[in-house]
Amino acid sequence: MQTDKIAVSKLFVTLYWCFKSKKLLHFGEICGIITYVYFNYCLFLPTTKKLVGAVKGKIYCMKKLMLGNEAFARGLYEAGCKVVSSYPGTPSTEITEAVAKYDEVYAEWAPNEKVAMEVALGASIGGARSFCGMKHVGLNVAADPLYTAGYTGVTAGMVIAVADDPGMHSSQNEQDSRHHAIASKTMMIEPSDSGECKEFAKAAFELSEKFDVPVIVRLSTRVSHSQSAVELCEREERENIPYEKNIQKYVMMPGNAIRRHPVVEARMKAIADYAENSPLNKVEMNDTKIGVITSGISYQYAKEALGDKASYLKLGIVNPMPIQIIKDFAAKCEKVYVIEELDDVIETHCKKNGVNVIGKKLFSLMGEISQSIVAEKILGEKPEYITFEDNVPVRPPVMCPGCPHRGLFYCLHKLGVMVSGDIGCYTLGTTAPLCAMDSTICMGASISGLHGFNKARGAEAEKKSVAVIGDSTFMHSGMTGLVNVAYNSTNSTVIILDNSITGMTGHQQNPTTGKNLKGDPAYAVDLEMLCHSLGIKSVRVVDPYHMAETEAVIKEELAKEEPSVIISRRPCALLKYVKHNPPLKVNKDKCVGCKQCLKIGCPAISIHDGKCVIDHTQCVGCGICKEMCKLGAICD
Question: What is the average per-residue pLDDT within 415-419?
Fold first, then answer.
């Protein structure tokens, strides 16, 4: 009753304010207010846990609607995590951004994922609970310390979040991170919603310390970026574990490492035994004609599609997986399906242990699963839909109006050079009409790839090829490639796109920006001095808004008989401190409809009635189109 009174009073106060200020106009808005108040203020549940707040002498834990990533950050906070080091990568970025808001937790952006994991491991050895987060391809970068950390184990709990991206919404491949857990012989758990994200984050620390192992928490785009109710509790402060020197455990020279391997195998057996009765693995018995073994977001899809028509074994521990609980569950069901996104990891485990299941025979190895796919494959039910016969033009992603990369890519397109590309928002230079990128592999590959390309094709290719790489990506993994260019001598031209921020993942700071994760002043790496120190004598700086100058410098550097770096420097147009010029205008009398201005691919420019039109709501007055127009039809 107390809970109901609190909820109702908060709801009516909010509605009263809205009516009084004449903010509510229709029933839909009333429903919206009720939903918002309910999920963000009114879900108070009695609890015996430590307090968030007290109402009239009663103890309550609040529930709040949160993204999976935000909930995971809350779990780190409540578990007493002290040190966080990550590298931004969609869909994992918000975990570190959210945990940085808790003053009790030290949080940083590291130059790359390998450094982040090493920082987290060092903090663990130092006795503090630690965390590092990354996307799936970031775990490739961090694999070196991960695999050895599987041997050393931990002192205080160490948790790693890796966010997979089925469907490749923002990634260059669709790899399944469960393979890293298997190969590194570490423990991996997988939540299915925001509430579990918080609880699994806390459980991961306990398991890490219980079994002396880094624990990986596998997320996915849908879990990370979906919202559900999360119970908020107080932080459990923990004293650092006293440091004790332990050469046999932490110095992984061959003589020590070979003695750690049996420890690793025994530990994996102990975790597998624990998984048989762990509360993280749950059995839900309903109709036994259909049994479903699943994990993560696939559990949500299965539950919504099948409901009580199926029984479920939801695996929260996905490495190492249990055996007996799977056999017992399968024995109770007539037919057992494995529903998992990407690779057949659970299915292979089941079949390896003599459990007959149906998995990838029905479900694809590629892309995301959905409720409709589950219903169709298992129940034979297809949703009704209406087809739209007209051919709708696609709307590909484009660089923003005023993007500093646009002028540079137009110059590269005009010169017809081979462009070895990299990972970042500038990868959009690949799209029409610029089409100014020939390859994109992984972070840092632009420079290394250009060096290989030029070694293969010789001096003539050196005059017709460049690498492009962002400032953050250069700090991540471009520096070693540039050292290789200088050391092993190709006359390669590298263009660093310095837009003063890490753009693609949402404007995170990096070592070149002069600010840290919390926005406080920090040392800013000087790119010119850095490139010189790496062995590059010729380093030039251009403003990509000045295309004629930029084109001239590119030609000059390509002609040189030495490696060179061009820094294309202009802040991202979306940064709050960037002051834009007034929108440009078109003199209709001078415009002849030549469409020269369309060649830069600016979304603010279009053609109507044969004349150029500039959308004043998008134009930032960068002036690139003005430079393109030789008739002077575009003016201030």
Answer: 98
At residue 353, the 3 state secondary structure works out as coil
DSSP 8-state code for residue 120: H
- Name the token pair of 214: 């880094």
The amino acid sitting at 262 is P
pLDDT greater than 90 at residue 467? yes
What CA–CA distance (Å, rounded) separates 349 from 355?
A: 9
Of 284, 285, 289, give the one whose Cα is nearest residue 378: 289
The chain-wide mean pLDDT, for the chain, equals 92
Pairing of strands 493-498, 564-569: parallel
The Cα–Cα gap between 364 and 315 comes to 20
User: String of b and e for 95-124 (b: at least 16 CB within 10 Å)?
Assistant: bbbbbbebeebbbbbbbbbbbbbbbbbebb
Question: End-to-end distance of the chain based on CA atoms, in angstroms?
Answer: 66
Q: What percent of the chain has pLDDT over 90?
A: 87
Listed in order, strand segments (DSSP E) in 146-213 are 158-164, 187-189
CA distance 418 to 405: 17
| 481: Cα within 13 Å, side-chain hemisphere | 30
- Residue spans of beta strands (DSSP E) within 165-265: 187-189, 215-220, 227-232
